[in-house]
Write a structure and sequence with these properties.
single chain, 2 domains, two-stranded antiparallel ribbon, elongated, mainly alpha, 21 helices, Arc Repressor Mutant, subunit A
Length: 395
């Protein structure tokens, strides 16, 4: 089961990567956080279950520096989500020092030949306590083994402090605020359970000096750890807005005919300073609506290939902002909204008599529908009548 769980985790990581866009770069940290957690799960599978010396020789030592990136990645992700800024400062790179130290520490193993690594893997397969018996420079493997979960829990703790410091609350009952709160609450709960159980299992297995014996005698702790990994891997599927990016709207009305411009760097800094909450105010949503209304004056929805990406490109509004606007503010999905506009356009043609020189097929194509059937279905959904029935009533 652990192998399939790990493979599922890699697929979720790929899903995050596929949906990684300029508008949600905070998910870079989430991507590597998920990926490294599943690499660690795969190394556990290699040590205890696989009986494959090549997989064991590859997984057990080479990736250990990455495990000390879990805490910083978690912290950077939470901070990016709260601050709407994924960039690292020079001081942030200090968080990578423990990982670099471990990398230097395992250089003797890394530069060993394949025969040495296969011999090491064979020894681990025979007795799992041998996983601590490899060449290193300074830090004993058991110290690194026990330090990993403590290090990760420390960063979970400072992430909690960061959330409290930014006063994340539900006083204004704002949809985005509630979404962030629920997601961070789930993520922190899962990570706390995952790394706490991992720490207990690490201590138990070290005192027994037999990894397989620890697996048998502390199976309940291991099951909690695996359960935490399952929830971590699949939780993102229940928060699609997190996957695509959270709306942090920063548009302001300019003086020119109600058009909108993106804030310049100075204005953006001031805007973020003034509004430290995670709200999308009604004013900003109304400004966004005004920009969309202005865009609709050129009838872009009549193009057969009109979609959310095209709208985003034309208006310079990120896709996830538009998705949030339609789903949470308008309470309608984009396709229904688009088709309703097409039908309203057709209705205007029918009322002013333009339709008399057009067949229904020509009318549907003029409105940008890809097929006659989709036109009729959308028309009936909007008016309750088919186009023919509507025309009969109109006459």
């Amino acid at each position: 089961m652990l192998l399939y769980l790990t493979l599922a985790g890699f697929l979720i990581s790929i899903l995050v990567l596929i949906n990684l866009r300029n508008s949600n770069k905070a998910n870079i940290y989430l991507l590597f956080f998920l990926l490294i957690n599943n690499i660690y799960a795969l190394s556990h599978y290699a040590a205890v279950y696989s009986q494959n010396k090549y997989l064991t020789a590859t997984m057990l030592v080479h990736f250990t520096p990455f495990y000390l990136l879990l805490g910083p990645l978690f912290y950077f992700y939470v901070r990016s989500l709260l601050m709407d800024d994924f960039k690292l400062s020079k001081k942030d790179y200090l968080h990578f020092i423990p990982s670099v130290i471990i990398l230097i520490n395992i250089l003797p193993y890394i530069f060993k030949g394949l025969d040495y690594k296969l011999a090491y893997a064979t020894g681990v397969i025979a007795k799992t306590s041998n996983l601590l018996n490899f060449d290193y420079l300074l830090i004993p493997p058991f110290a690194n083994f026990l330090f990993r979960p403590i290090h990760a829990l420390f960063y979970v703790a400072i992430s909690i402090v960061l959330i409290l410091k930014n006063r994340l609350n539900l006083r204004n009952n704002n949809l985005q605020q509630i979404l962030i709160y629920k997601w961070l609450l789930l993520l922190i709960s899962i990570s706390t359970i995952l790394y706490l159980s991992f720490m207990l299992f690490s201590v138990f297995s070290y005192t027994k000096l037999d990894y397989k014996l620890a697996v048998n005698q502390a199976s309940y702790i291991l099951y909690i750890t695996i359960g935490g990994l399952i929830v971590l891997n699949f939780s993102l599927l229940f928060f699609p807005n997190i996957l695509y990016g959270l709306p942090q709207l920063d548009y302001r009305l300019s003086a020119k005919k109600g058009a909108y411009k993106k804030l310049d760097e100075t204005e953006e800094t001031e805007e973020k300073r003034i509004s430290k909450s995670f709200e999308i105010s009604d004013d900003k949503l109304l400004l966004l609506k005004s920009k969309i209304d202005s865009y609709l004056l050129i009838f872009p929805y009549l193009k057969p290939n009109f979609n959310l990406s095209m709208m985003s490109s034309d208006t310079d509004i990120p896709v996830h902002h538009l998705s949030y606007f339609f789903n949470e503010y308008m309470k309608i999905n984009f396709n229904t909204w688009k088709n309703d506009l097409k039908i309203e356009y057709v209705l205007e043609l029918m009322k002013d008599g333009t339709y008399e020189n057009l067949t229904l097929d020509a009318l549907s194509k003029k409105a940008g529908f890809g097929s006659r059937s989709s036109f009729i279905n959308s028309f009936k959904s909007k008016t309750g009548l088919t186009p023919s029935e509507y025309l009969q009533n109109l006459d």
